[in-house]
Every structure is written in structure tokens, then in C-alpha cells.
Amino acid sequence: MFEGKVVAITGAKGGIGRAIAEMFTQAGAQVAISDLECPDATASELGALAVKCDVGIESDIRDFIDTTEAALGPVDIFVANAGVGFGDPTVAASADDAAWEASWKINVMQSVYAARELLPKWVERGGGTFVVVASAAGLLSQIGSASYSATKHAAVALAENIQITHAKDGVNVHAICPQYVKTNMTAHMDVPEDSPLALKDPGDVAEALRTAMMEGRFLALSHPVVEKYARNRTTDRERWLSGMSALQDTMGNQLGLNAFKGGE
Known about the structure:
The protein is of the alpha/beta class. 48% of the residues lie in helices and 12% in strands. The chain is globular.
């Protein structure tokens, strides 16, 4: 399914992005990876193309795509993986404007920039695949970070809109919505291994994406329980909100994001 496909992945120096890159390279795809610092070492290990890219800058996204296409050919699959999160120091939404702006540019606008560049080409060619690495926070909410919750919801909504608008053009869209994963972003978290919120490995997320793509499903869920939580949120929002408040009270120290800052 992926043999010979050209795949471009942002934020792929490590974590989820690296795992996704490894999954595609093992499947025979030609892969380009980018990060804020050029991911030469990772690219060398995976046999991928390395590109430096600040995803919050539209010209950098264009350059990443142009460089990939010049070296490997037209991009078939784009994975918007780079992400950041900032905790609320005191009350909800108390993160400063710089944190909110960074969250918006990186968690949302990188996909907007990539879509502007790629969708016209895919419509003309008759198809392509756009992958947004969102979060369970994009379907639910993230304790301790209003900016993360709001921007990940926006990322999922954007992915849905691309699917709605361009399914007729052969464009496939997938939103990855994991719970906690072992990355730099969650390094400070202390969650018991037997907890339903226990951290999974980045490879589990890559496998969930592979399965979703094989089966033609929009949501890629490395933590299947997220789908149950999302249904609960829809069918009984008041009960769900109460449950989230209780979770914050009981596990806030383990899941709180005052130290939540980094890339996925």
C-alpha cells in the first residue's frame, strides 16, 4: 500500500513523528522528515531525507514540500505531526499570549499552510493523503491546558473540513488522537503502568495510523477507549464534565501540565 509513496512528516526528529517515519520506511515509502533543528541523525538511521523546518512559518512549510518534491517526487502523504503544549500557570487560560500564539501556529496553522500548498496539486492529480496528529484532547479536553485543548480541537475540525470538502477529489484524511504517549512532551508525567491513562509507546501510534489508513477510517486511535469517552461526552455532556472535574481532582498532579512544554 505504501511502496514507493512519497511521505513528508513534520516534527519527526523523535517521538511520534519518528515512529511514523519508521513505519513508512519499513513499508517501502520514500520519506522526508523535518524538525526545528535539521534531523540529520534520525534521517540517516531511517534512510530518509532531512529538512530543517519551522512549521509555524508558511514559507518553511512550502520549502519543506518543495525540497521533498525536488528530491523524491510529488508528495503523496503529508503528516502534520509537530506540536507544542503549554500549561496554565494558575486559572484556566492563564498561559500568556506567546504560548497561545505558538500553540495556534504550530498545532493548527502548519496544517493550514500544508493544505494550501498540497490540496490544489492533489485535486489536479486525483488524490493524496493528509494526516493530522491531533490528540485525544482534540476530541475531549486536556487537564491543565486550555490552549492545548482549544488548538487540538481546531486541528481535528480542520481535518474534518478537508475530508468533507475533498473526499470527492480522492483526498483521504486521518486524524490521530492518542492519549498519553512516551515523548518529550510527557516526560514529566508520573502515571502508573496499570492506569487506564498509562503512557503508550510512539510505535503504537504509528501502528494505529497504519491500520486506519488500511481500513479507510478517519480516526486513528492508539487508545481505543478514547472513542468511548468521546461518545460519553456527546451523549451526556454534563456527566462527562463532572467526571473530568473529578479526574482533575484525583490525578491532577500526575497529569497537570504546568511543566507541559515540548514537541510531539
